[in-house]
Amino acid sequence: MRLASTTLQITLLAGGPSAEREVSLETGAAVERALKALGHEVRVIDPDQSLFETLKAAPTDLVF
């Protein structure tokens, strides 16, 4: 299997409660655009205390 031709369900973590939140959100948006341009399905999550439950609730091939 070649990953280059495989569409992945990617969960992208961006934001969070750190002092770098705004930088993380901006970087996450750029990564999201790049992954979508490659044909992947991307779901963005702003991590909080319920992150584990959120990740379990949706199909994900990769967490970035």
Helical stretch count? 2
Structural class: alpha/beta
Q: How many runs of DSSP E, i.e. beta strands?
A: 3
Q: Sketch the topology as an H/E string, one letter per element.
A: EHEHE
Globally, the shape reads flat
Beta-sheet strand percentage?
Answer: 15-25%
Strand order of the largest sheet: 2-1-3
Notes on the protein architecture:
By secondary structure, the chain is an alpha/beta fold. It has helices at residues 21-37, 51-57, and strands at residues 9-13, 41-45, 62-63. It has a 3-stranded parallel beta sheet with strand order 2-1-3, with helices on both faces. Helix 1 (21-37) links the parallel strand 1 (9-13) and strand 2.
Short description:
With 64 residues, this protein is of the alpha/beta class. The chain has helices spanning 21-37, 51-57; strands at residues 9-13, 41-45, 62-63.
For the structure shown, list the relevant keywords:
alpha/beta, 3 strands, three-stranded parallel sheet, 64 residues
Draw up the topology in text:
Layout: E1 9-13, H1 21-37, E2 41-45, H2 51-57, E3 62-63
Parallel strand pairs: 1-2, 1-3
